[in-house]
Design a protein that fits this description.
It comes from Streptomyces boluensis. With 449 residues, this protein is α+β, with helices and mostly antiparallel strands. It has 3 domains: 247 residues, 3-Layer(aba) Sandwich (D-Maltodextrin-Binding Protein, domain 2), CATH 3.40.190.10; 93 residues, D-Maltodextrin-Binding Protein, domain 2; 90 residues, no CATH class. It has 19 helices and 18 strands. A 6-stranded mixed sheet has the order 2-1-3-10-4-11, sandwiched between helices. Strands 7-6-8-5-9 form a 5-stranded mixed sheet. Strands 13-12-14-15 form a 4-stranded antiparallel sheet, sandwiched between helices. α6 links the parallel β6 and β7. α5 packs across α13. The longest helix is centred in the middle third of the chain and has 20 residues. It is globular. The termini are far apart.
Length: 449
């Protein structure tokens, strides 16, 4: 695969500029009794919402700090800073301008490496959203593209954000498929989305929520489901070690607030999706695809061993791209604060597993979705209520990745109907099952009805 040293140099230059171009001290307040806490988050990266957008809208962190201040006599002020990716958050943390940040697994490793390099270490203290198979990252193409498999990307231009989790998915997927000769473009997600629409990029590899958004808008279709890698991917919360040592009560307050936001999202998934959509401008239907009751992301603050193990496997990918030399993952992961925030409930929470994939239908005016255990049952329901269906979601028959039912690739096999995120996955099933064939969504609805 073609490397992009120019893009790498530009990315590092941007990081250095951001790190040196900011003024002020994030942990110094306006007065002797005021502690200012600066939180860097990514509003559009919606599987970080329990440490960002949703957490902020609920006011849970501020309430925790107010209660803490009433006990200690210290006044706290929270400043929220929104970014498009994890790189500028890391730059601000390295400069001491952001105290707490949330980002994906690959950016977390860059965050750790940067802190270790500057002798200003950071710590991974919790997880926001994760997918044990890697389904949070997707490669998409234009709706009318003739590209069908990863092999078709040879000699093509693929936009991604170098050093991101989506970049890691692209690198791994191409290597596993034995595909080289890809021209990788290092672009921010919004720039890459525009490039795809303009035709200056043949495909786009990005993280949540860009693939789902573009598919929902009819501006892209899925080419590769990251869950085919069967490698966990997640987003997490990182803090400056110096700040955590000075203000452990703030870190624990943040994590208690994150737990509150997580419980709210689980208990009220539709309302949470609406709240996040209002704050970000994203369609609620897209937010729910990832953050819903059976969405692509599972929200759980605990630092599960399987996710930590996956983080260690990510290091060689970044090292081969020349983005890091090495990362002390064990020294980076620090579960002390989340354990204290959870209290006696931590072991049970740590052992919890994601819910089983299930189809859902969201109807107009409903404050909850209807769930279905089979694609046939879901389609029958949609056919009977098609005038009031806001969105229908169906899990991929092979990976379990939830996708929009009207954007999925459908296969009829006897009386059974199966959905797949990508044409390649559907064709693999058809090739192995005589009598199976792909059908349109309209045909699938008719068959089910």
């Amino acid at each position: 695969m073609k490397r992009t040293p120019v893009g790498l140099v530009a990315a590092l230059a941007l990081l250095a500029t951001l790190a040196t171009g900011c003024g002020g001290d994030a942990s110094a307040g306006d007065g002797d009794d005021t502690v200012t806490v600066t939180v860097g988050y990514q509003s559009k990266t919606i599987n970080t919402v329990t440490a960002g957008t949703l957490l902020r809208s609920l006011g849970a962190f501020e309430r925790e700090l107010k209660a803490q201040g009433e006990r200690s006599g210290v006044r706290y002020e929270v400043k929220w800073q929104d970014y498009a990716t994890g790189a500028p958050i890391t730059a601000q943390m390295a400069a001491g301008k952001v105290d707490i940040g949330s980002m994906g697994d690959f950016p977390l490793l860059l965050n750790a490496a940067r802190g270790q390099q500057l002798d200003r270490p950071t710590r991974l203290v919790s997880v926001t959203g994760y997918n044990l198979r890697g389904g949070l990252n997707t490669v998409v193409t234009a709706p009318n593209s003739k590209l069908r498999t990863l092999a078709d990307l040879r000699g093509k231009k693929v936009s991604t954000s170098v050093g991101s989790a989506a970049d890691g998915t692209l690198v791994r997927a191409l290597e596993r498929a034995g595909v080289d000769g890809v021209d990788k473009l290092n672009q921010q997600p919004a720039v890459g989305a525009s490039a795809l629409q303009a035709g200056s990029a043949d495909a786009l590899s990005q993280f949540v929520a860009w693939p789902g958004l573009l598919a929902f808008q009819g501006k892209a279709k899925a080419l590769y489901d990251g869950a085919e890698l069967n490698l966990p991917t997640f987003h997490g919360v990182t803090v400056r070690d110096e700040f955590a040592e000075q203000r452990p009560e703030v870190v624990e307050a943040f994590l208690r607030a994150q737990i509150t936001a997580t419980e709210h999202l689980r208990s009220h998934p539709v309302a949470a999706a609406e709240k996040v959509a209002k704050a970000t401008g994203l369609p609620p239907e897209v937010v729910y695809l990832y953050n819903g009751a059976h969405g692509i992301a599972t929200f759980d603050p605990t630092l599960k061993p399987r996710l930590v193990a996956a983080l260690k496997k990510d290091v060689p990918v970044l090292r081969s791209a020349g983005l890091v030399q090495d990362v002390d993952v064990d020294g980076f992961v620090d579960d002390r604060y989340v354990k204290r925030a959870h209290g006696a409930a931590y072991p049970k929470a740590l052992a919890a597993q994601p819910p089983q994939p299930r189809g859902e239908v969201w109807r107009e005016g409903a404050d909850r979705t209807a769930g279905f255990d089979s694609p046939n049952a879901l389609l029958r329901y949609v056919a009977a209520h098609r005038d009031t269906v806001r969105a229908a979601y169906v899990p991929d028959a092979a990976t379990g990745t939830l996708w929009f039912a009207d954007r999925a690739v459908w296969v009829a096999h006897g009386n059974a109907l199966r959905a797949f995120v990508t044409p390649a996955a559907a064709q693999r099933y058809v090739a192995k099952h005589p009598g199976a064939r792909t059908v349109s969504y309209a045909s699938a609805l008719e068959r089910a009805a």
